[in-house]
Amino acid sequence: MSGSCLCGRVRYEVRGRTGEITHCHCPICRKAHAAAFSTLLPVDAAGFMLTDGAHWLGRYAPEAGQTRFFCSQCGSQLYVTYEQQEQILLCVGTLDTDPGIRPVCHVHTSRKAGWYTIRDDIPLFPGRRSLAVEAAAEAVGLERCYHQMQQMLLQASRQETVTSLLLLWAGAEKIVPLERDIKKNIRTSDRMECLPDSRFAILLPYTGANAARILGERIRNSAKIDAFDSSLKIGMATRLPEPVDMADIMSVIDTMFVEAERGMMQHVVAMP
Q: Which of 77-81, 177-181, 194-198 has the lowest mean pLDDT?
C-alpha cells in the first residue's frame, strides 16, 4: 500500500501485517480531521516507511503518549503513534491504493458529533471495543457475536420480543465435546459463536429467562456434567421487550455480557 498528503510532498509505503479499519468518533479525531470521524488502520511500525518529504512532517501531541503526524505544508493528517506500541494508526483517507479491506466498526460513538447520524450496519462501540475485543483483536468470533446480537436486538425491539444470551465455559480440553452438545440442543434460529478463552455464546431470539435456563440445563445434562461440577460454567442474561436504538445498542450488549459473565463466576445458570 502507498499513500500521500494532499499536496503530495509527503509520501509513504506500508508493507507487512495490518489490523482492521475502524471509524473513530472521539473528539481528538474529529477535531484533527475537521470531520464527523476519522478512519484508521493499525499497521506495524516496522513496515511503515516514509519515501519522500520527511522534512515536511509536523507533529502534535494532543495528550500524553500520543503523537499525531501531519504535512506542515497542506495540513493532511497522516498517522498517529503511541508510546510503547509497535503499531501506528494510519489515516486511511491518505491512501492512494485500495487496502483490500473495509471498515469493521465505529468506536467512541458515545462521544460522536451530535449533528451526525450513523447509517451503516457495522457494529458500534461506545468507547474502545469492549470486553475481550480490544485485547483479542483477532478473535473474529466475538466481533461476529456482537454484530449478530446487534441485529437480533434491533429486530426484537421492532417486534417487541424478548432475547436471551447464554455463555458457557468448560475448559480447552472439553471445547470440542461441548460444541457438539450445544449444537444438538439449540434451534435453527439460535446462533452459537466460539469466543476467546474456550467460551461459547448462544444467542436466543424470542427466548425468555425460563426457556434459556432450561436450555442451559439441557446442555449440561447432554454433556453429562453434574450441576455442582464447576468444570462447566453457565451464565445468562435476558433483554425484555424494550425499545433500543443504534446509539445505545452496544451498551445494551455490554450489559448483557456482564450479567452473563457474573452468572458464569457463580457456576450456575444465573436468573436475571
A: 194-198
